[in-house]
C-alpha cells in the first residue's frame, strides 16, 4: 500500500433491531432544542416518526420540525432550513430519512453560524467551515449513500443546473447514527435497487484507481461479493432481514472513508451521474447505473489489469485461455447482466434526458483526476452519447 493517510471515523453506530435505544442513550448529551429533519412523509406512514418523536419527548426536548426535504435536496430548501435552525436555536439536528435528509442536515449544520454565502463557500470554493457546527444525529431509513457515517453533503442548485457534493471533514460527520434494517423495509423496490447500485458504485469508484497492492482493494472485493449475494436475495424478498441488514452494513463501509485509504479514487461515474441529475432530478443510484457501462467500457483499456482482477475476484471469471482484455471484458459483461436482472436503469433516456440536453450535461460534469484516465470534454461527450 503506497499512499499515506490518517484515519479517524468519529460516528458512533447503533445497529440492529434495537438500534433506536441508541437514540435514547444519545439524546441527553445534547441541549434542549432539536431540529427534526425529514423528507416527504414516508416516516409518518411507516411509524418511524412516532417512535422518534416519542424518544425526543421522553428526553424532554423542544422539537422544531423541518420536513419536506426532497430527494436531491435543493439549495433553496437549504436556505429555508438554515432559517429554521437559527430561529429554533438548534442544539442538535436530527436527520430521519435517507441520504438526502442526512446530507441536508449536514449542510444546515455548517451553515447556521456561517455569515457567508454558503453555496459559494462550501459547494463552489469547497472551503471548510470556520464557524461553530451544530451536531447532527441520524436515524437512517434508506440504504445506499453512506451519509450516515461520512462527511458527504450533496446539494442541487437548480438555478445554476449544478449538483455538487462537498466531502466535509470529521467534524461534520454525524455524531451518531441509528441503523435499524427494519426501518428500511417500506422503501419502494425502485429505491431499494437504486440504493444497492449506489453502494456498488461507491466501492468501484474507489477500487478503480491505483496499481499498487492495497489492502483497501481486498476489502472492496469482499464488500462487493457480499453486496451481490445479498442483493439477489433482497430483490426476491425485500423483507429478508439478513439480506437487508447485510446490505445496510455494506453501504456504511462502502463510503465511510475506510476503503479509500491509500488510494487516489476515481469518482467519474458520480460526476457524470450528478450532471445528469442536475438536468433531470433523477434518482441518484439510477443516474449512476445509466452511465456506468459506457464509462467502464471507455476506461477498460486504461486500467485493463484492474478490470481483469475485478472480473476474476468479483465475477468469478476463469482467466484460463483468455487475454487480460478478454477477461476484463467478460467481467463487465457479467456485471451488465447482473444490473439488468436486478432491474436497474441502463440509459439516461429513461431518466428523462434528451439529446438536446447533451451540451448542458457535458458542461455540468465536473472532472476528477484520480482514476485511470483524466477525461476531457470530448471523452465526456462520447461517454454520455453512448448513455442514451
Ligand atoms: O422523502 P420521503 O418521503 O422520506 O421518501 C424517500 C424518498 O422519496 C424514500 N424513502 C426513504 N426512506 C424510506 C422511503 N420510503 C419508504 N420507506 C422508507 N423507509 O426514498 C426516496 C429517496 O430518498 P433519498 O434520501 O433521496 O435517497 P438516498 O438515500 O439514495 O439519497 C440520495 C441523495 O444522497 C446523495 C445523492 O446525490 C442524493 O442527493 N449522496 C450522498 C452521498 C454522501 N453523503 O456521501 C454520496 C452519494 O454518492 C450520493 O451522492
Ligand atoms: Zn452515490
Tell me the β content.
5-15%
Strand arrangement across the biggest beta sheet: 1-8-5-4-2-3
CATH architecture of the largest domain: Up-down Bundle
Tell the overall outline.
Answer: globular
What does this 3D model show about the protein?
The chain is α/β, with parallel strands linked by helices and 388 residues long. It folds into two domains: 12-184, 3-Layer(aba) Sandwich (Rossmann fold); 189-385, Up-down Bundle (Dehydroquinate synthase-like, alpha domain). It is 48% helix and 11% strand. The protein is built from 15 helices and eight strands. It has helices at 20-26, 42-45, 48-58, 75-88, 99-109, 118-124, 189-207, 215-236, 241-254, 268-280, 284-299, 304-315, 324-342, 358-364, 377-385, and strands at 12-15, 33-38, 62-66, 92-97, 136-140, 152-157, 162-167, 176-179. Helix 8 (215-236) runs antiparallel to helix 9, helix 8 (215-236) packs across helix 12 and helix 14 (358-364) packs across helix 15. It is globular, with a radius of gyration of 20 Å. The chain binds 5,6-dihydroxy-NADP (NZQ) and zinc ion. The site of 5,6-dihydroxy-NADP (NZQ) has 34 residues, from helix 2, helix 5, strand 6 and helix 7.
